[in-house]
Design brief:
125 residues; alpha+beta; six-stranded antiparallel beta sheet
Length: 125
Amino acid sequence: MNLDSIKAFNENYNLPCETLISHAEDKVCVSLFVPAECSFFDGHFPEFKLLPAVGQFSIVSHLASKYLGLAENVSKIKRMKFSAPVTPDTTVKIELEADRKRKEVSFLITDADDSAVVYSSGKFA
């Protein structure tokens, strides 16, 4: 993934750049502020805006490509669980771990200030 495509992704969805917390060969942890202006919120429950599943998954697959060198095209979602809504102006912590032997990525999205608040988790190939 090149710098231009990273900038384009963030600009297309009005997302600021994430803050890298930790990064190893097969693991990455970032913090990301999801502003109310993020276009993923557009049209998704006008009275109670929340970050839709497709938005969360787009962000996760983008970060897997950027930090773990994996293709952004996902062939199979093996498991996804949504436990709490991500509302506008929330800072999330996103943890990704690649199992290269199985060609899978696990993810966990929690509140940046309280990791007991789990927004979503899953696994994809």
